[in-house]
Design goal:
single chain, 431 residues, Fumarase C, Chain A, domain 2, 63% helix, Ribonucleotide Reductase Protein R1, domain 1, 6 strands, Fumarase C, Chain B, domain 1, 3 domains
Length: 431
């Protein structure tokens, strides 16, 4: 992944020094376990603990061996000496690869969860700030009935919270290591070594494995990332729609000196939101690749390995970047209550149609007749032939059922916000 999307904390997780450093830690911990079992002399363990590796030497060896783990073990062994014969004892490459990957994915998940928590803070702040900022709600892109911008933010908050819950579960699912040998039978090393290593690394030991940790675990993790990315795209797409010239209810912050177009100086484009929508497509594609990794031949083949070398760093780096970009977008989002109020009046009171329908039905008019009457007037409003209130007040058939004062009561916008406090208590009240 290109570095412009990488935060240093996330980038370090996927650097080769950290990857191979984790491998070395696994090998040393396995030797500690063997020493406790009396299978490695104390003086040999002391020599092993001083082992190190050189990336340059590993690259030289891998050119010859065409095997990264063997190159790693040879490079480490050269720094230890004859006691290196105890390193990797009874283990297979995937014991190191999969356990090391579990550490990296878990650490990446922790950073992503920090990002989700930061996003929740900013969304909540925006929701509370605009709890009662009235705006039109839209279905199919068309004016429906009023909501508040705070309610829109509260919906985002709940959705982001569900992603946090999924990620917590996926983190636990992926934080699993194995040191069980060539086909998972512990034929060449005791289960106690696996238990010791995983406990020291803060991982669970797989209850059962083949040569690898089963890839449904990884698929769950990458799917959770894809769902989170898709939610971020949903939020970003909403910003894009609300920033359209015809709407102009919100807008991304536009910094001094920022340019929107090489050709048109007037442009203020939602580039941050558009960027997030594009990146979400990538993260979803990686989830599909992870699902494809689940079926492998028998106890293991290598087809998943090349995929994971791409999707593990790319997915986590991208989602981490997306979260922090969205945090900035929400924190600095320009909200225009005046424009929201103006847009509420754009359709001449059409959003009161449902309440009018209900009032007529309650007063004894059949729902079918009430619907036809209200819809007829609504269609006239769409054609620019007046506003709904004026047309309704002048309709004798409607006046048979509703006094003018009752009709005026229908056209009260505060009706649509009377349960906002209750909804906010549901979303934020238990925190």
């Amino acid at each position: 992944m290109i570095s412009r999307y990488s935060r240093p904390e996330m980038e370090r997780i996927w650097e080769l020094e950290n990857k191979y450093g984790t491998w070395l830690r696994i090998e040393k911990l396995a030797c500690e376990a063997y020493a406790e079992l009396g299978q490695i002399p104390a003086e040999s363990l002391a020599a092993i603990q001083k082992g190190s590796f050189s990336l340059e030497r590993m690259e030289e060896l891998e050119e010859i061996t065409q095997h990264d783990v063997i190159a790693f073990l040879t490079a480490v062994g050269e720094t230890i000496g004859e006691d290196a014969r105890f390193v990797h004892m009874g283990m297979t490459s995937s014991d190191v690869l999969d356990t090391g990957l579990a550490v990296q994915l878990r650490d990446a998940a922790d950073l992503i969860l920090e990002g989700v928590n930061g996003l929740l803070v900013e969304i909540k702040n925006k929701a509370l700030e605009h709890k009662n900022t009235l705006m039109i709600g839209r279905t199919h892109g068309i004016h429906a009935e009023p909501i508040t911008f705070g309610l829109k933010m509260a919906v985002w908050y709940e959705e982001a919270g569900r992603s946090r819950t999924r990620l917590h579960g996926a983190r636990e699912m992926i934080a699993v290591g194995k040191l069980s040998g060539a086909v998972g039978t512990y034929a060449t090393l005791p289960p106690e070594v696996e238990s010791y290593v995983c406990e020291k690394l803060g991982l669970h030991a797989a209850r059962i494995s083949t040569q690898i940790v089963q890839r449904d675990r990884h698929a769950e993790f990458f799917s959770a990332l894809a769902i989170l990315a898709s939610s971020l795209e949903k939020f970003a797409m909403e910003i894009r729609h609300l920033q359209r010239t015809e709407v102009r209810e919100v807008g991304e912050f536009f910094a001094k000196g920022q340019k929107g177009s090489s050709a048109m100086p007037h442009k203020r484009n939602p580039i941050g939101s558009e960027n997030l929508c594009g990146l979400a497509r990538m993260v979803r594609s990686y989830a599909l690749a992870a699902l494809e990794n689940i079926p492998l031949w028998h106890e293991r083949d290598i087809s998943h390995s090349s995929v994971e070398r791409v999707i593990a760093p790319d997915s986590t780096i991208l989602v981490d970047f997306m979260l922090h970009r969205m945090i900035g977008l929400v924190k600095n989002l320009q909200v225009d209550p005046v424009r929201m109020e103006a847009n509420l009046g754009m359709t001449g009171g059409l959003f009161f149609s449902q309440e009018l329908l209900l009032r007529l039905a309650k007063k004894g008019m059949s729902r079918e007749e009430a619907y036809a009457l209200v819809q007829g007037h609504a269609m006239e409003v769409w054609k620019g032939k007046g506003d709904l209130l004026g047309l309704v007040v002048g309709d004798p058939r409607i006046r048979e059922f509703l006094e003018e004062a009752e009709i005026q009561d229908v056209f009260r916008v505060d009706r649509y916000t009377r349960h906002v406090d209750r909804i906010f208590d549901r979303v934020f009240g238990t925190e």
